[in-house]
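Section 3.1 - Work completed
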Amino acid sequence: MTNSATKSAIVTGASGGIGGAIARRLAKDGFFVVVNYAGKPAPAEAVVADLKAAGGQGIAVQADVAIAADVERLFKESMDAFGKPDVVVHCAGIMPLFPIASGDVTAFDKVLATNLRGTFLVFAQAAQHVLDGGRIMAFSSSVLAKSFPTYGAYIASKAGVEGLVHVLANEMRGRNITVNALAPGQVETELFLKGKSDARIDELKKMNPLERLGQPEDIANVVSFLAGPEGGWINSQIVRPNGGFAY
């Protein structure tokens, strides 16, 4: 199935709202897309079905990004199907919220394992396998600028992600590979809306001057730009598609 004339992309966490939108957009842009998921296969398989229905190509590959052997297998299966990737978008992450005073080290370790260790492991494989001239992207969050209570573990993990982005960008010197992170604000996904009242959602909308929640497609559009030829001069940056929520 490998075709050297065809671009390919790996998207982790691609069965969710933002990751799924990114997978669909990159397929529209002409990429063969590897749809990574950690848990149940059905949502990822639904994304792959969408890609194929729209004339694209994709496969679903299960892997827990916190497990080194899983990440190595993700890249191997991806390359067996579509060759070395042109683009890697690391979207997988978790966001359990709890106060620092709780001392919940088990929850803290889980957040860092998925969000920070996972980024390190995906970056390590991407650095080895992404084609020269390619793109590597991770996800941070605009909440870093807000320091909201209960976000301590999540913010700590994403601050670490931003540090890795800058270092890997320097380590890719000579290969014309860009390394960036996206730091979205509030995005209207099923996960984000769960458990929130209409009144709370209205409050969240008004936190940015555009007075709306972001859509998964808003984030996918930025990924598309960074992955395309016009995004080649953007490197070692934290790009903030957040409607003005934080800067």
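Second construct:
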Amino acid sequence: MAITFERASSDYAEIARRALETEQCALIVVDIQEKLLPPIFQKEQLLRNSKLLIRAAGVLKIPAIMSTQYAKGLGDTVAEIASLLPETEAIDKDQFSCFGSNAFCTLLKRLPGKRNTLLLCGMESHICVTQTALGALREGYLVHVASDAVSSRTEWNWKAGLRRMRAAGAVISSTEMMIYELMRSSSSAAFKQMLPHLKG
């Protein structure tokens, strides 16, 4: 058992050491919907940081995919998120994992370039985000989760989701960790474009 744990820890460390590369990343915005959002723990933080990630993805030309869970009952993507992705139509699903949607899987495979790293934000941490992360890992993707841009209705479930994803091999990160790593340098044009939003 100890050998297996050590090997898993070594594999995780290797993945965590790899630098994020903009041309390999896609941002997945999971189920930030009108009727799901009100009871979410620290929802203002989730919204602010998801918006930062979407803005950074736009600046860096990282493609973004949005999902909704049964939009007919749970509402569309909240306006302040959808307005940042005006040309992106949310993929509505009934499976909790985005990987349970053929439309999602097809769109993901058709993204330009070699997109082998998924950056996740959205909700709920312990349900749709976790199941999407696990599906991505099973498909061979590298997964980074912005811990302060995901949440659940309770703090307990938010943290339980993060623990499960970390145990499965997802890198648990933060919004600023992702953005600063992708930007690389304070002298880059992209960073200067993002700075007013990061200061806000």
